[in-house]
TrEMBL record:
Alphabetic keyword roster: Cell membrane, Membrane, Transmembrane, Transmembrane helix
Gene Ontology MF terms in the entry: aspartic-type endopeptidase activity
Keyword Transport: no
Any single Pfam family the record assigns to this protein: A24_N_bact
Name recorded for this polypeptide: Prepilin peptidase
Amino acid sequence: MLEILAFILGVCLGSFVNVLVIRLMAEEKINGRSHCRSCGKQLAWYHNFPLISFIWLRGKCANCHDRISWQYPIVEGGIGLLFVLGVSFMPPGDWLWLITFFVMATYAGTLFIFDFRFKVLPDVITLSGAAVILLLNLLRGLSFTNLLLAIVVAAGFFALQYFISRGRWLGAGDIRLGALMGAALGWPDVITAIVISYWLGAVVGLILVIFRNYGLKSELAFGTFLTAATVAVFIWGEVMVNWYIRLVG
């Protein structure tokens, strides 16, 4: 039952994430009525049910019959599944851990979509996420010194690369994302997430070079790997570290 409720909550928040991403990029008000991106007609209330409306309308606008982007159901379902994953791995009775995971996963999903589609990481998302998640982790009893160290190291690591390369290796938004990662994971788990993100980026980049004719200088949305690694390490960080120690030991 808890998994079902978590999925519904995640789907609803995924719907909000879609609205947030599209409207921030279009410089529209967040609180306006939902409307078709093609014809501009406002959606009826019964066309606003996450996932269900997309299936019911067969992926088309009820007015102009233009195709609705697959981003909507993918993001809604994806965040819903992340919430179910969080419930499945929640430490027994640790509801604050679950709330922190829900918040972190929502921010991570939002930044993933921003970077994947538009290659931007808005400060309003990264900085507010870092602040909210830091507060939640402090309420969980995590050490402020530990979290601050993780924030400084992760943000500093990306800032160093940014200034050395003059923005060619990564964007300034990755610096703020590093702060969010540090606030979410603490020390030394944030290092694990950074290492995993570079490995993911290298593997995906190699695959794209081989099969999609990408050049070696083609840009990858590195924030997608950072957010994915953050979610993974938040859940399985200790397992990953122990596995690696056994592997190299």
